[in-house]
Amino acid sequence: MSEVLTQPPPPPREGRFELAVYIRQQNLLFPLEFGSIVDIGRASECQIRLDDLSVSRWHARLYVGDDIEIEDLGSANGTTLVRAPSTGDSRDETGSLAHRRLVPNERKRLRPGDVLRIGAVIVVLQRKGRSSLTGIRAEIAGGLPPVLVDPEMRRAYELVGRAASSDISVLILGETGVGKEVMAEAVHRASPRSSGPFLRLNCAALPESLLESELFGHERGAFTGAHAAKVGLLEATDKGTVFLDEIGELPLGTQAKLLRVLEERTVIRVGSTKPRRIDVRFVTATNRDLAREVRAGRFRGDLYYRISGLVVRIPPLRQRRTEIEPLARHFLREFCSRSGQPEPRIDPQVIKRLWEYEWPGNVRELRNVMERAALLANDGLITDQEILLEQQPVDSGLSDADEFDSDTAVLEVPSAALSGRSERDRIVRALEACGGNQTRAAKMLGISRRTLINRLEQFNLPRPKKG
Known about the structure:
Strand order of the largest sheet: 2-1-11-10-7-8
Largest sheet: 6 strands, antiparallel
Structural class: alpha/beta
Strand content: 15-25%
Radius of gyration: 23 Å
Distance between the termini: 22 Å
Shape: globular
Number of strands: 23
Number of helices: 13
């Protein structure tokens, strides 16, 4: 789960700028409020916290007014400004080269489009409304992703296209970043409910204490702080589609209540006994093998069979390499068009490197890599120097070798077995690779931190101590 910036009530004058942060396989967006001073670093007290070892605890500071100024706070790895071109060349207004390491404790004025290297983290200043974080879903035309070359992907989309006209429940399986949300929205857009709401909810992102109230709503006085009745998300999505991502992370208690919703098509708000009818279509997704989770007692079998009317597995990007180059060029073209900059050429060696890389973060990681490359390219050419790839094991809760036991319709994608390691061994190795950092190990495994802690308890593994 990414860091969330809690903003104070907005001042009378609305901020005009925001920061786009590219860190590992994530894109984060932070609004900048007018008149604020924003600290950036690894310290928990920083308004923008960057959890990366290349970033100092108190690394840099932003001064937000009519103009934006940046100050390096004497960081260990420094802050480098990559000036946005304003005249078509790579030199700024002083005639010096655009790449400049900031002098500590001196302010430097920024302009929209400027790129900062804060340690190894890429940060972009942009005006609100010019976000580079628009998801692939914005480019779906006719219910399809922007690139559909691989035969198995074509078959998968043909299958969900046929299923969209009915209200059959669809379960989408695949690793983190393969495009499960894109497929879920394609189901919605091709269905008779396309004019209704489309609710996206990550079941791993909400704490258990809030999940039930958010899903089902509550009555006034149902618990401390419930000063007014609240309509739940399921009730508010009436006549639409509900997409529950990471459904394998739902607590067992919430699973039982969701099963009742699926069977009766009613919800009961927290603090009420009155059922309220809803008319929604459910699409779910997970990177876990739910059949295995059912056998282990961590997921209800009756709920599994309710949500798996049709099971579709999206292959990881490394198994559909014919889509790597066209996707890379699409992301580059789309980003440059949106940001108003010329589209750079791609060195042939870069294409070879992209083809050979294993893409643990899948399509999401490829998009981030190409956007970063566009920002850092010099002389209109992307070379190996601008391609920042993470070297980490290809592993997730859903491995290529997993087999799904189901009596329902299943689209199986042929795959080569990657490893015979047990789940316990994968967890141990991930923790060793991350120096005992549970948050990073969970990201490497493609699961939430809460799920990792549950697995540690299940396998009687000691939780690493903080250093």
